[in-house]
Amino acid sequence: MELKEQLSGVPGMLRPFKAYLKEAGLEEGDQVVYYGCPGTCTPFIELLGFAVRDLPLEQVYVPYVDEAAAKTVRPVEGVGMQVSGDAVSLDPKVIVLMGGLAMPGVPVEKEAVQSVVAAHPGAKVVGICFMQMFEKMGWLDALDFDLIIDAAIDPVKVWR
Questions:
Q1: CATH 3.40.50.1950 fits domain 9-151
Q2: Where is 96: in which H helix or E strand?
């Protein structure tokens, strides 16, 4: 995998994700399934979902890799996208792995993620992380990503 472009800001993360999904040959109703940590990854999942809300896809959130807890990501008027309380069955055409899963201290082993990906043969695998988390934790060699978006939140400035 080689670096294709370097962008900046929130649009630099969202635009290539949307472009990838538009070019992925997906059909109406196909599932994009996001796997991530509750609380920390969900706002980014909702942001990614908002960026692709006009594509005729079903979007689903799975906390960690617990597919039995899968929930729909849907538009909420005047708010944006939100994870619903509705359970959903899974048939992902695109698996989106959030970098929070790779962070130290998260109760998910790389092997569990590999098993989830293997359970959905033919699904494309997208990784979205910050600060080289997949690289730092050795996930680039462990998973066959079709696309990786690696953003930076550096520096973080705080004024009081």
A1: no
A2: strand 92-98
pLDDT over 80 at 1, yes or no: no
Q: How far apart are CA 87 and CA 124, in angstroms?
A: 22
Dmax over Cα atoms in the chain, in whole Å? Answer: 50
**Contact, 29 vs 57, CB < 8 A?**
yes
Domain boundaries, the chain: 9-151
**Cα distance between residue 84 and residue 86, in whole Å:** 5
pLDDT tens per residue across span 15-38: 999 999 999 999 999 999 999 999
pTM of the model: 0.95
Given its phi and psi angles, is residue 52 left (phi above 0), alpha (psi -120 to 50 degrees) or beta? alpha
* Contact in structure between 88 and 72 (CB atoms under 8 Å): yes
